[in-house]
Amino acid sequence: MNDSVAEALAPFPHTAPAGLAPGTSGGLDLDACIALMRTGSRTFFAASRLLPQRVRASSIALYAFCRVADDMVDSGQHSLGQAMALLSQRLDAVYAGRPQEHVEDRALAIVVQRHELPRALLDALLDGFAWDAEGRRYETLEDVHDYGARVAGSVGAMMCWIMGVRSPQALARACELGVAMQLTNIARDVGEDARNGRLYLPRQWLAEAGIDPEAWLRHPVCTPALQGVIERLLQEADRLYGQSTAGVAMLPRDCRSAILAARYIYAEIGQQLRRDGLDPVNQRAVVPTSRKLVLLACAGVQSGWIGRPGVPVPPLAAIAYLVEHCGGAADGAGGASARSLSQRVEWMLTLFERLEAQKIEQRARTRVSH
């Protein structure tokens, strides 16, 4: 069995960066965040086990805050305005270095301080949660992209950021991977969302297929016309998965298998949905554990073979503003000169690694030409 897969199946280790280490108050907060994650996204939980220890704790803390914020907006215990105001106040306190007495806030404050995480990314995520709560309508694919950019693209950018990667191209691909995953979620959850009065499929597409969105919401049924819309959305997700894969090569080597595993497993949800007959109204596509293990193993092997991107690809329009915000944050931090010693060493090692890879590639091309 691949070592990365063996680690993914082992009990969750407690080695963490300073501030989130065992025996500290941050370590106890991390334990609570892990408990939250275990009951949340199984795919994220499985993939996170493949992350190096220097990134794993930060990703768990980030996930825990996102999960609690989503539940807070969606629970109905507060009005939308109250929930958003409370979350904004909590983020204000986190970024001021005085987090409120919530375990996820204290853990997030350590992440923010350690990685100088741009606040704009978390604000974008909260905007997406608010869009959910207010029942926003999505007329076009671009509207759905806008939603996906907030609730998932922002998370992709944050994960990329805490891995120490600041390249606009890498951030763009990370955001697009998040959007692709969200499109997969939308396709899988069509029936469940409809029963909750929510519709994320582009209404324009439904109308083109002869489906009245409001009438369908009142009586959701699976028809060939609906299946065509779902297939169309899955094809868009596949396009973004393909475009985002090149960004994995820009990540540190020890982070690639985890992100590739998440990408493979989410894309497999779409394939499972196809195998189930494109009927998310009457059943929920689930990837079997055995298949997930195969994909985890594939990710561990293939992460070292991903080709580096060629000509830069412009970011998806919906995520461009997130990339711009990250660029401003990186510039404001003073670039390489403002990095810590460990960050500068990591940056130099990555640079040398890329230069060496380019040399090897150039030698191979020279041999072929001769």
Protein traits:
370 residues; Phytoene/squalene synthase family protein; 17 helices; disordered N terminus; mainly alpha
What does this structure look like?
With 370 residues, the chain is mostly helical. The chain has one domain: Farnesyl Diphosphate Synthase (Orthogonal Bundle). Helices cover 70% and strands 0% of the residues. Helix 2 packs across helix 6 and helix 4 packs parallel to helix 7. It is globular and about 50 Å long. The N terminus is likely disordered. InterPro entries: Isoprenoid_synthase_dom_sf (IPR008949), Squ/phyt_synthse (IPR002060), Squalene/phytoene_synthase_CS (IPR019845), Trans_IPPS_bact-type (IPR044843), Trans_IPPS_HH (IPR033904). It holds the Pfam family SQS_PSY. Keywords: Transferase.
Sequence of secondary-structure elements = HHHHHHHHHHHHHHHHH
Number of alpha- plus pi-helical segments: 17
Query: What is the CATH architecture descriptor?
Result: Orthogonal Bundle
Broad shape: globular
Q: Please give the domain count.
A: 1
How much strand?
Answer: under 5%
How many strand units? 0
Full CATH superfamily name: Farnesyl Diphosphate Synthase
Low-confidence stretches: 1-17, 22-28, 332-349
CATH topology tier name: Farnesyl Diphosphate Synthase
Helix content: over 70%
Radius of gyration from the CA trace? 21 Å
Per CATH, the class reads Mainly Alpha
Structural class: mainly alpha
The N- to C-terminal Cα distance equals: 40 Å
Q: Main sheet, how many strands, which sense, barrel?
A: none
Protein name: Phytoene/squalene synthase family protein
InterPro entries: Isoprenoid_synthase_dom_sf (IPR008949), Squ/phyt_synthse (IPR002060), Squalene/phytoene_synthase_CS (IPR019845), Trans_IPPS_bact-type (IPR044843), Trans_IPPS_HH (IPR033904)
Keywords: Transferase
Pfam family, one: SQS_PSY
